[in-house]
Write a structure and sequence with these properties.
The chain is mostly beta strands. The chain is 3% helix and 22% strand. The chain is globular and about 45 Å long.
Length: 129
């Protein structure tokens, strides 16, 4: 992982208190061999596209992660199903790789590390549930 999440994500609201569809959370970037390991500017979490931005974040290509160009001029074919280069998702013959934990064999929706899969279901017949 590139960062540690320090607080639960919270919904961002506008000046009228209406949710904008965004979440924000506090993170701490991890150190790598060459210094701070930055987050990608765009990513997928399940089928949902997400964006991250913070002061000092380098711009990267959404498709391949390169810092030398952006996705509009990228010539790489990267599969969003298995994460490998050289083919696109509709032509993928490999097993799906979770874009949360990186393990092969399940998607984000079934990932045991996803918050939505770790919350205990409400007990039937209990008031308030």
């Amino acid at each position: 992982a590139t960062a540690d999440v320090l607080a639960v994500p919270v919904k961002v609201t506008d000046r009228f208190g209406i949710w904008t569809g965004e979440y924000k959370c506090e993170i701490e970037l991890r150190q790598g061999e060459g210094g701070v390991r930055h987050l990608r500017g765009a990513f997928f979490l399940g089928a949902e596209r997400g964006y991250s931005w913070y002061k000092g974040q380098p711009k990267t290509c959404f498709k391949c992660g390169s810092r030398t160009h952006l996705s509009g001029s990228c010539t790489q074919d990267r599969c969003f199903r298995c994460g490998e280069e050289g083919h696109l998702s509709p032509y993928c013959r490999k097993g799906i790789v979770c874009n949360l934990c990186g393990k092969r064999g399940h998607a984000f929706a079934q990932c045991p590390k996803a918050v939505h899969n770790s919350v205990a279901p409400p007990l039937p017949g209990v008031a308030g549930h």
